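Our preliminary data section would be incomplete without showing what the modeling component actually yields. Below, a chain of 477 amino acids is followed by its predicted structure, encoded as tokens that our downstream tools consume directly.
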Amino acid sequence: MNERGLLGGLGGLVLGIGAGQRSGAAGAGALMALGVIAIAGAWFVEGRARVAVAFVALALLGAAQTERALNGQAHSRLSDGIARNAPVTVSGELVDDPQSGRFDTDAFVRVPAGNSHRTLFAVATQDDALRLRVLEAGDRVVLSGRLAPLRPTGFDGRARWRHAVGRLDRAQVLALAPARGVLRIANPLRALVLRGTEPLPPTHRALLAGFLLGDTRAVPDDVVAAYRDSGLSHLLAVSGENVAFTLALFGPLLRRLPLGPRTVGAIAIVLLFAAMTRFEPSVLRASALSIVAFGSSFVGRPASSVRALSLAVIALLLADPFLLHSIAFLLSCGASAGIAVLSGPLRARLPGPMWLRSPLAVSLSAQVGVTPVLLATFGTVPLVTPLANLVAAPAAEAVGVYGMLASVAGGLVPPLAPVLQQPSAVLITWITAVARAGASVGIDLDRRSAWFLLGIGCATASALVARRSRRAPAVPR
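Predicted structure:
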């Protein structure tokens, strides 16, 4: 299917997810069957008809998957206990690393519920919070506590979009076993990287963990605010550049393999790195995009950046329609779309040398891509963001490359870590200084100004098109 068909299908999928949320928890068998039939029928038509069929098919599948997910939240073996605030003892697996607050620690725990599994939002306090805090994603635990419904506001509202069906209050860890599967390999590798960052001061160490693994739990609030207010918070989220660098490390080995084993090996490396970063939404997007690119090359049909991104986003939203409520996922997709569509034309039209045009084009195009999400979510966008990114991004890229090498080497040979991490400390100091300087500017673009600028841009573009059409030579009949 061409880019137009994929983009149309993606639009239908998003509308279908929205429709599924409005209809609420319901049986989705009929919608799913109709969607599968429609997607199969798209292969037998061409042109605009294929785009229309793909739109309808993915709208049906999006609605069906969303209704199915909502139905799973509303009805399970745990529903009665949640309604009664029943005391329970459950065995399960931590979905993510626990998050610590001032007075408690919370974690998502995947527990058996009949023939399937459900996710509980476990909250521990006092000494139990300290015991839960030291655990990792994938750890198998036995917890006791009291079931409760999710609260309508606060973090519970966000927990609902991570498939939590209820709370487990006053959680106590009764037993513990190590992770299995890919996390059993990923957790020691993650610990190795973090061990290599230990010689750094606490804030630098926390920021380096964010740059390398997307782990910002220990970053001070004022530093987080500076990165956010300057538009640099995306640097603390693992992106496609981190995935590309990880693959580059194994490039000499992969190139020695035949095409099939090379593709399988590359996908395995991507999945292992995604597990190390806890499958953050931005990492999911980057990983899915990489896997689509590997698959396209394997079958001998390399996909354009727009086509590959569309396929990756469609696959992820079909697997988990609740990703549409993840701001990190939307920002990652918006930035990737902006770069894929606009960076080339901007690079060709901007003045100056290539070493300046190329990063500036990437920064501006990514900013255009994320601006609608930022305006819809936060209401404003810092105007200093493109300049801040231009100044800070090269240092952030260097941290992603050198910081990972230094952390791995320092983790393997701890006495070397203090020396190896000195360049990382200098780079992080520079990036944080840029973030603080950008945050101090305090000039933002709000929604009303954005609509005004969009109108001016559309009017200018229309005038330029009309001017070119008047200048075009007449074609003789």
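The chain has three domains: 3-74, 79-179, 185-456. The chain has a mean pLDDT of 87. Preliminary results of this kind motivate Aim 1 of the renewal.
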